[in-house]
């Protein structure tokens, strides 16, 4: 397939979404099939492009496809241009590959939902927007995909919008992301001012000429945008609430693809971050803090989806950390992003399969012993579990290990934090495993857990296989390093200890995490959550993130709007009306206008016209 | 005498208005059809003019006839990039409003045919306002637009409509009076310099002393600031839009208020460039206040129509900001914004109107769960809302982005604060959507009917344009470009060159 046809990748799911949305009930019968086919078609296109790229030399693999001029204003020209290069093609494969599996899974998961067609329309809309995001060759065009995935996320979090909680969560996600959009907007505006363009090529070419102040500012603005989309501290609060959406959505959008867009943005903007030590350090700090915060939140959640959401935050924190390390970390950020896409989608879909069999109950305290009735779900979930822990030879071992190594090479404190995070991850994931699949059954008598249909388990099996084998991208001759080098560069940094020792230490820490979790959750787990220590409460309440937002932003904001509304009604309006009344007894005249106002209006028009003429004549006479 | 194209555009709706009134009262349907027919023919003619303008330039459309020789007043019409955009917007929104308001004037105080006739009169006068190239003619038409709008608000709408109509009228007249003083002042200057003339082409040649220029500028600016409306002269708008029928609100906010921002470009910048630059800091701050204040007050509204009115105050803040940023991005963005805002606000007001007409209440608290019973209505409402909050990919995004970027290049602090408006916009739209459309189905909503074919028909062109111009805005940006360039030249400002120019080869 010629790279000229890259636009098809975006167009196919977009057209399918339009057909499903506009087609109405007529498309109910086959809507889910069309949606799945569209996603698969994009995947096939992606594979063809990827295969073709293999035959090319490094420098030929980056192709821009200019579709048309978007607009020219002043000295800025923005083209509707796509960029297909080694970085974007990996994303294309991840998005359409995992995306297609999740489409297939959703056929089963959403079978009994009367609005299934619309669900697939939104999924297609998401795929189209996400592909535009990663294929755009201009930051302003990235913005379109960026907000497009935000819209799809909004629609899908709020898919069951008859539930107020879902509608509120959807709105929150959109609004918090808009805070991030402030960053993206300002970054693009700065680029226009600096380079007269926001095309990647221009920005990359001009970045070296940036002053360090500008590089820092633009870098921080991009980081703000990334924090919004990727649920990084301080804009993390929406992701946990986003679990209100149907589980396939959590797997696709809020684990495997969309939430990682921030990492993509940082890596894509490497030219800018390399010009500013401050900005890249900020990325590292944000990533590290989020890696720990997410992991801590994950330890206390009884809701299986929220435990996994905390984990997603944390894992993206790792990617962000790696992206902040510069050329030493870019490749591993992307590598971990991909393996995480596999194993986290795997586990979310596994959680969905569990919920499917448990009457949509998400509370792990009501689970237990599900390994028996749900064998496939259990085994596949276990693959994801081993992968996220970083047990060799599962995919996560290769990707996470490299990040921890690079972190140590960069700064021992950051390295220790990353190591600690790995331990906590082992703890909370073991906890999820034990509470869900092990121990004794705790479910109520009217619940009859059962394995999910094939249409759901087959995607699980494929993703489990990828969770196991995904590491091949690296251990097969460091393939991904060579692949991405022409785009982001690679730099070898040497950790303070030999790699093998690092690996041993990491595995030891992971083992400690597992042992603590087993010691704690091996015994009977109460169906009702115990009060918990202050630390547990802190984690359960998302480290008081929401409380902080409420106290600092929401409440003052509400007071402000209320005060302004009151002022506007009484103050501004009252003042102007009062003044008018003062001048001409307005109120009396108002009443006169209201009775028989047609005639008096006509009269006043006549007077007005006469006044104009008289005024002119008077001036002329003088 | 040959009738010029623009005169034809102006006369056609007027004839239509007469034709509509001539239909006997008993044949209400026929009168609506006549009105719709005339508005559609006007639209076709406008399209022809727009295409001709795009291909052959403005020359062909200039008309000048002496009107009142003693005053130097001429009947002079012409087009530039800003004018043509707004003429097209007017010609486009009028038939849409007629279709959407098909039954809204039935059983009102006056016969429904007068409602449609007034709409056509308003269309004619608006086209005149946007194409007048003589200040006196502009002033007369500017004031004359108040008449149809006054009757549209005062004759058809909510219980407080008379109060709202009079308030609208008094505010506008007060603004107009100040403009009149400046208009007279211009005459004095022009007469002193030789033969008096109100033609724009003659007026820009005048040599005006700094002080005089500033006073004259203020007269015009005040009138336009009331019309646009800018905080603190805005309070007439929520009352008017809250009481009027949705169709009237569309015409009021979508077209009539644009006269304010249009006038700022053509008259404030065009005639008083020095004074415009002098006033820039204050105007930008006022615009910024409008952006944030309008949005914050919108968030706190309990009435759907008033909420939308306040969002427009915020949007007009952006438009004014872009104009006085004095950059090509700002000016292009503002002009485009005027057009896009017309589309998005029309969609928002009309769908809100559909909703309100079904339930008989504009209170947000009376709704809930509408999505479940009327998904098409909810879907179009969300779409209109998203376009109002300038979702990237839809046409308002490009204009809003250009406005802020244009401001950013000259006034960083103002632009950075203004960007927070995009968060507030998400809040006012999505809060309203959440409260009305989602959640459990509220009492009184269960049997709400979804949109019918006529209602959908009125919305479809707006949706198509909002998406189409979001993806491919180039034609309209290109039409605007020459007008922006000449305005920039007239004011004597240039864009800042990029700090680190990247050569074509590197791109």
UniProtKB/TrEMBL annotation, chain A:
Residues forming the NADH-Ubiquinone oxidoreductase (complex I) chain 5 N-terminal domain are 70-120
Please provide the Gene Ontology terms (biological process) for this protein. ATP synthesis coupled electron transport; electron transport coupled proton transport
Q: Which residues form the NADH:quinone oxidoreductase/Mrp antiporter transmembrane domain?
A: 136-425
The way this protein sits in the membrane is described as:
Multi-pass membrane protein
Where would you find this protein in the cell?
Endomembrane system; Membrane
Q: What is any one of the record's Gene Ontology cellular component terms?
A: membrane
Transmembrane region(s): 6-23, 30-51, 87-107, 119-146, 182-201, 213-231, 251-267, 279-298, 318-338, 376-398, 413-434, 455-477, 497-519, 601-621
Q: Which InterPro entries match?
A: NADHpl_OxRdtase_5_subgr, ND/Mrp_TM, NU5C-like, Proton_antipo_N
Q: Which Pfam families match?
A: Proton_antipo_M (PF00361), Proton_antipo_N (PF00662)
Q: What Gene Ontology molecular-function terms does this entry list?
A: NADH dehydrogenase (ubiquinone) activity; NADH dehydrogenase activity
Q: Which UniProt keywords apply?
A: Membrane, Transmembrane, Transmembrane helix
> Where mainly located?
membrane
Annotated protein name in UniProt: NADH-quinone oxidoreductase subunit L
For this protein's source organism, the top of the classification is: Bacteria, Bacillati, Actinomycetota, Actinomycetes, Propionibacteriales
From TrEMBL, chain B:
Example of a GO biological process term: ATP synthesis coupled electron transport
| Gene Ontology CC terms, in alphabetical order | endomembrane system; membrane
Q: Where is the protein localized?
A: Endomembrane system; Membrane
Transmembrane region(s): 35-54, 75-103, 115-142, 168-189, 215-237, 278-300, 307-326, 338-356, 376-394, 414-433, 454-472
Membrane topology term reads: Multi-pass membrane protein
The answer, when asked if Magnesium is one of the entry's keywords, is: no
What EC identifiers does the entry list? 1.6.5.11
| Transmembrane helix among keywords | yes
Q: Which UniProt keywords apply?
A: Membrane, Oxidoreductase, Transmembrane, Transmembrane helix
* Span of domain NADH:quinone oxidoreductase/Mrp antiporter transmembrane: 132-424
Q: Which GO terms describe its molecular function?
A: NADH dehydrogenase (ubiquinone) activity; NADH dehydrogenase activity; ubiquinone binding
Q: Which family does it belong to?
A: Belongs to the complex I subunit 4 family.
Record's protein name: NADH-quinone oxidoreductase subunit M
State the organism of origin: Kribbella antibiotica
